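I am writing to request your help with a piece of structural work I have in hand. What I wish to show you is a protein chain and, alongside it, a tokenised description of its three-dimensional fold. Could you please explain, in whatever detail you think fit, how the structure tokens follow from the sequence? You will find the record immediately after this paragraph.
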Amino acid sequence: MSYAQNNLIEASDFNDLVGGNPTTTANTLNATWATGGGTAGYGQTPVGNVTVGNTVSASSWNSLVTNTSDAATHQGSSITSIAAPVSGGTVTFLSSLPTNLSTIYSNRLNAATQGSTTSNTATRGSTWSQALTFTHTVSFANADAARYFFNAGGQLKMTCSHPGGTGINLLFSDLASDIGTVAISAPSSGTVDIASTTYNGVTKVGGGGNSPTIASNEGYYGLGTSNTTIFTQTASTGPSGYLGTFIRFIARTNGTQGSNNDNGDTITIHTVWDEVPNGLTASSGSATTLTVQAPETTNIANTWGAISVTGTVTGS
């Protein structure tokens, strides 16, 4: 029997609203809230199914309603408020519940706020005159942890800096500043809204200078196992003949590692600073920072665990 006004509410109706676990069935609670698969799933404790023929307890209904509300608050989604059934009370048809479940599924990659940050800065300790490659590696405990991180609004954010001065040093200082912050989010297409900002898979925030070349769909779910250039910005000020100088971000994952349609548990980002043409001496202190911006943990629990971030720099 379908979940509808004037029908008897059966266990199977409740199970259809909750979904199994894991499940990728759209508009079910567990697809968004629990393990899910691919771009769906926060890794929260699933709401269990009820054996057909048994009574659906008030606590089960309460979990369904409350977790739907918590997911909506996490996302910043607007849903219809529903009073959760209480023990001993009558469970009536909740007409807004299917619509609420559809809303949180559609908005599953949005996040109203974010949580803590962890950063790693790799810095060149000596002068250089050709090119530098900064390599940052972000490692999750497992494939699902990586999915939960990005699905819940987690991001990787790249910034650069160089000491001021004149000539080539002024060029690199300005170029690093012009990059602003380059954020890697979940999407392989379309946009998400995170902390009041709209993001593609790869998005420049702030900065200035020349318009960069951005592979906007190469977010976590868009990356492959081969190095892919996701962002390039060239110098807009500096010595004549050196405006072909650029900073570029190149990224990859280690590919599918689990059984729930992840895209890897390790992400590697190379940041190339290339002086074009070679020859002028840049001072020490060129730096690239990778910041792990975690999801919030007020409305959802931390299911992505500890995240390792390392960084190195090579070049001459």
About this structure: The longest helix spans residues 58-75. Helices lie at 11-18, 29-33, 58-75, 97-106, 143-151, 168-179.
